[in-house]
Amino acid sequence: MFNFEVTVLGASGGPDAGDTQCFMVRPSGSRDLRSICVDGGAGVGQIARILSQAKDMSRPQLIESFYFNDFEPADQFFDPRTPVKLGFPTDLVENVSSNTWKRALQFYKGIKEYYITHAHLDHIAAMVMNSPMAYDGECISGKKLWGLPFTMDAIKRHVFNDLIWPDLLDGTASRLKLDSLAELRLHNCETFPQWDIIPLKVHHGFGVSEPSSRIYSTIYLFIDKHSGSGIVICGDLEQDHASDKLPLLEEAWDYIAKHISHRRLKGIIIECSSWTATQQTELYGHMSPTYLVPALNRLQRQYQEPDALRDLEVVITHVKKAISDKDPRLIILKELRDQAHATQLHVRFSIAIQGYTFQF
Ligand SMILES: [Zn+2]
Ligand SMILES: [Zn+2]
């Protein structure tokens, strides 16, 4: 029994600008196009590409790689037990007709809310550039942007300000509305009222011009009130530093372990931007297997039950396209599996791949 359906519109940690983070989330098996997105790094262009790729399901599924091979077989990127399929669920696609672009616009129209993890461009760019369409012809629709105050303030002041982008948030007739969430506070999802969404603040490195200033990001915990099941979708994040007076990731894990039992926790989508060999000083507020595996072990310990996370779906996002002979996503996947195995952590690791839909 699945509760959440997550289509990956983008999951790269850059520098490729056409595939950055955006997860389209809806209740499993829903037959209409309403959805919410966590982050907006990808949008209508990627939706159109996904719709057109999925038309020809007869070909063996290959994933763009551009390393040792230009394309790699899809099954290398997923745990063999993980419920994941190419494209949008067929029920949804059957509901829309006409050409691919018009169909993509209908999917865009269906996005009712964005939950932004932080205001870095790779998490908001397509949401911003797509926004005029919310005022346009067949696409007219209201959209709500949500996030913690540090994210919403940055988007309002530095993006929709008539200089970087037209201030489409202005005025009561605006189709784009922006509102802040409160940290650790339960927020009832407007589009899917059966869901509560809780934002948890985490660390994401330091400023470049002001190295003493902290950068923050957000983890979203989704809880389905009907079934009690939940998933966790993370923005960029790093491990807590020993000097941190506020160990935010530890607090987040603590909150999650207290509010959802490990049996009801269906999956975690979390970043692992760089491979193990990367020095801590070169991570710039991100994760590598060296830090992610201990972090998952820490969450397991919070449940105070051995092997509490057995078979949990852990989907890795935001891998950087580093210079390499082999696809960094495949390197990181192997490193995570090896390091987890060595510490008796029995989760199922997969990679978030653009155009694939995971069931949780
Ligand atoms: Zn970031
Ligand atoms: Zn990022």
Automatic annotation (TrEMBL):
Gene3D superfamilies: Ribonuclease Z/Hydroxyacylglutathione hydrolase-like (3.60.15.10)
Pfam families according to UniProt: PDEase_II (PF02112)
Entry's Gene Ontology molecular function annotations: 3',5'-cyclic-AMP phosphodiesterase activity; 3',5'-cyclic-GMP phosphodiesterase activity
GO biological process: adenylate cyclase-activating G protein-coupled receptor signaling pathway; cAMP catabolic process; negative regulation of glucose mediated signaling pathway
Family matches, as InterPro entries: Pdiesterase2 (IPR000396), RibonucZ/Hydroxyglut_hydro (IPR036866)
Name of the protein in question: 3',5'-cyclic-nucleotide phosphodiesterase
Organism: Torulaspora delbrueckii (Yeast)
Gene: TDEL0D06410
